[in-house]
Amino acid sequence: MHDDSPPVAVDPITGLLSALADTLARQRAVLEAGQLDQLGEINTVLESRYAAIGNWPGGEPALVEAIAAQPEAARASLRNLLLQVGTDNRVNGDLIRLTMNRVAAIQAFQAAGSPAGTYGPGAGAGAGSRLSRRA
């Protein structure tokens, strides 16, 4: 069955916040799946979403006023979007920190196991050095 009804117009505020929420949800899914190679593209889109909010005519105060001027049902919907954005932003920050810690741990583990970590300059016993007088 095909719906022939005209598309519902989305007000600019809802469009702006929905786009941000959708992009943060995509970023979260990528982080949870460990698909770090996809983060660059998503982060570029995310930067443009935040820039669009920052470029709202009149700035953040005008955006807050525009949200406050919405009918109650619309304000409730926008509050839900803002809660979703805040939650996803916090969780994504935590996931990014965990990923950075994991990468640092892997790099430390790899460095500790490499010959350069054991025999390199300033790493203790150099290659061919005598550990004791008897050796």
**Tally of contiguous helical segments:** 5
- Measured by DSSP, the beta-strand proportion falls in under 5%
* Proportion of helical residues: over 70%
Gyration radius over CA: 26 Å
Average per-residue pLDDT, rounded, comes to 84
Name its key features.
5 helices, 135 residues, mainly alpha
What does this structure look like?
By secondary structure, the protein is mostly helical. It has helices at residues 12-33, 39-54, 59-68, 72-113, 115-119. Helix 1 packs parallel to helix 4 (72-113). The longest helix is centred in the last third of the chain and has 42 residues, at 72-113. The protein is elongated and about 65 Å long. The chain starts with 11 loop residues before the first helix and ends in a 16-residue tail after the last helix.
What can be said about this structure in brief?
By secondary structure, the chain is mainly α.
Secondary structure topology:
Blueprint: H1 12-33, H2 39-54, H3 59-68, H4 72-113, H5 115-119
Helix pairs in contact: 1-2, 1-4
